[in-house]
């Protein structure tokens, strides 16, 4: 699996040093000022986490880090665990939502049935992979405009599934 996000702990000493450097010798462009403001918020305790992204990746990171993820006609609301397709609410079971959210968070990355199972259930994989196939089939019926020709959850034959990153 490709890692899309890494978590690096930032202690107060490093944060203070970095903030001091940014204030003494600010780099050109708006990103340095945004980082400085973020570090100030972190030091003040108004935020507990900063999420940094490479240039060109900011939109993708912001979409997955926020409260709401919009992909095509699908809108996924993490905290309320709601899914809308074309403005209409789609009723998902808790596990269907977890599978969808996991795949959307990792758009474009291919996962085996076992990897999806372990990520969502967080326990040992059941040997019968038809269980995961049934969940994917039910999920597709609910979110896909045409479940027989899926646009969102794609099958990668011989491997598993991925959420379409071309949307």
List the helices and strands and how they pair.
Elements: H1 12-24, H2 30-44, H3 58-65, E1 68-71, E2 74-77, E3 82-85, E4 88-90, H4 94-105, H5 113-121, H6 130-143, E5 153-156, E6 160-163
Antiparallel strand pairs: 1-2, 2-3, 3-4, 5-6
Helix pairs in contact: 1-2, 4-5, 4-6
Structure summarized in a few sentences:
By secondary structure, the chain is an alpha+beta fold. It is built from six helices and six strands; from the N terminus they run H-H-H-E-E-E-E-H-H-H-E-E. The protein has a four-stranded antiparallel beta sheet. A two-stranded antiparallel sheet has the order 5-6.
Report on this model:
By secondary structure, the protein is an alpha+beta fold. The protein has helices at 12-24, 30-44, 58-65, 94-105, 113-121, 130-143, and strands at residues 68-71, 74-77, 82-85, 88-90, 153-156, 160-163. It has a 4-stranded antiparallel beta sheet with strand order 1-2-3-4. Strands 5-6 form a two-stranded antiparallel sheet. Strand 1 (68-71) and strand 2 form a beta hairpin. The longest helix is centred in the N-terminal third of the chain and has 15 residues, at 30-44. The chain is elongated and about 60 Å long.
Largest sheet: 4 strands, antiparallel
The helix-strand sequence is HHHEEEEHHHEE
Q: Helix/strand-derived class?
A: alpha+beta
> Got a strand count?
6
Shape: elongated
Q: Separation of termini?
A: 21 Å
If strands are numbered along the chain, what order do they take across the biggest sheet? 1-2-3-4
Total helices: the number is 6
The assembly state of the depicted protein chains is single chain
Sequence stretches where pLDDT stays below 50 over 5 or more residues: 61-65
Beta fraction of the residues?
5-15%
Can you give the helix content as a percent range? 40-55%
Q: Supply Rg.
A: 19 Å
Give the averaged pLDDT, no decimals.
Answer: 82
